[in-house]
Write a structure and sequence with these properties.
Layout lengths: L1 H28 L4 H24 L8 H29 L5 H31 L12
Helix pairs in contact: 1-2, 1-4, 2-3, 3-4
């Protein structure tokens, strides 16, 4: 369990860095509204997060089940996306008058704070529901 949690955390850190770079590049570099930039940034990290967690953290080879793994993972990710987009858009409004360098810190921190708060919930759902081992625990004893 500890190894799985550490690997899941590494995947989360990697996808968070990816999302933060995209968010700052779009919102501050390209002038995209912060909420839209956050949507693009988070969506860009969903597939690497799914694959990293499924294959590396939970060591599940082959194709994933659409109904048991892919759809629930996307629902979980899109829930985080909705909460983080609201939060990033709100922080963008509150920091509108700040210097770009401070906003380059504030916007990703808003995104990070949401996903950090949801990380434990995500790990438990991934471990106990989405990527749980199926088969043996449901077989009757001989």
């Amino acid at each position: 369990m500890i190894v799985r949690a550490a690997r899941c955390l590494c995947v989360s850190v990697g996808t968070t860095v990816l999302s933060a770079v995209i968010l700052v590049a779009l919102a501050l570099g390209a002038g995209v509204p912060a909420g839209i930039a956050n949507v693009i940034a988070v969506v860009a990290g969903i597939v690497p997060s799914y694959l990293g967690n499924r294959r590396w953290a939970w060591n599940r080879p082959g194709r994933g089940s659409l109904t048991r793994e892919v759809v629930p993972f996307w629902v979980l990710s899109l829930t985080g996306l909705a909460i983080s987009t609201f939060t990033v858009a709100r922080v963008a409004t509150l920091t509108e008058s700040w210097a770009g360098s401070w906003r380059a810190i504030a916007l990703p921190m808003a995104n990070l704070s949401v996903f950090a708060a949801l990380w434990v919930v995500q790990f438990v759902l991934l471990d106990r529901v989405i990527f749980r081992t199926r088969g043996m625990e449901t077989c009757p004893a001989p």
